[in-house]
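Sample log: FAD-containing monooxygenase EthA.
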Amino acid sequence: MASEKVDYDVVIIGAGISGINFGYRLQERLPNLSYTILESRHELGGTWSLFNYPGIRSDSDLYTFGFPWRPWEEQTAIAEGPLIIKYMKESAAMYGIDQKIQFNHHVNNADYSRTSKTWTFNVTANGTEQKTLRSKFYLICTGYYDYKEPLQAQIPGIEDFKGTVAHPQSWPQDLDYTDKNVVIVGSGATAITLLPNLAKKASTVTILQRSPSYVMSQPAEDGLEWGIRRLTWFSKPLQHRLLRWKWVLMPFLLTRFAYNFPQAARKMFGNLIQAQLPPTLPRDPHFNPTYNPFEQRVCLCPDGDYYAALRSGKGT
């Protein structure tokens, strides 16, 4: 049986950072293939479009997390959400990838025909319109979050709580926590971001944790990065490669040190944490993880804002 006519050679689902990157790679390496990107939301960005909790930022550096074909040129490696969205939109527009995106297109299902060797997609566009699209190949770039149903913590008695319960993934934009007492359940990367940002307006912010995380302070722009950017006789791509390798090598060396000398790494991290804590907060047990550094992910806080909030007395 002859192959059915297709609408596109490739269908990409999701206009987040992976979908945009794959669109660029198709244009670069297989320019004769047609493609489209189906995005269920009203704009590109994926996680960085959906998540809007106070202070949302990356927990990885943008020199390695960003696009190799569009160097990250901002001064801070750990960037806030709006800056990442701006970077993604500019990158997509620069190479015409934004013109390939069909917004408000939700893929209901995808079926493969072994006979015709094509994929068939049933799509709902703009909430009501039903479409059928066909392609030879498709790529899923939807990430690993359930965007409609975020994971809820099972807290006995929470239904009787008289205050407001908010989830970072679906943060209410009209939530006013000014002069309120706020409790953050959890101590991962999102909690480390939320505490200093909520503390700017809240009366107190308390982290309620099952077990602590290692939290490393990282200068928003360290001396080496500052120096590389001022090597004006280096081209921008070369500066970017140097900065990228800095962010590849430093974590690699640090993790190898922690792997080979776990007790020394534990002591080093403990001393760094202790030096940033207020005297009213003992490191043990609140900031003394039961595991060694990098056995779980180490959290980053730019310019030590997490510890600054603790020292201010508004964070606990």
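Observation: The chain has two domains: 8-140, 162-218+246-311.
Observation: The two ends are 68 Å apart (CA to CA).
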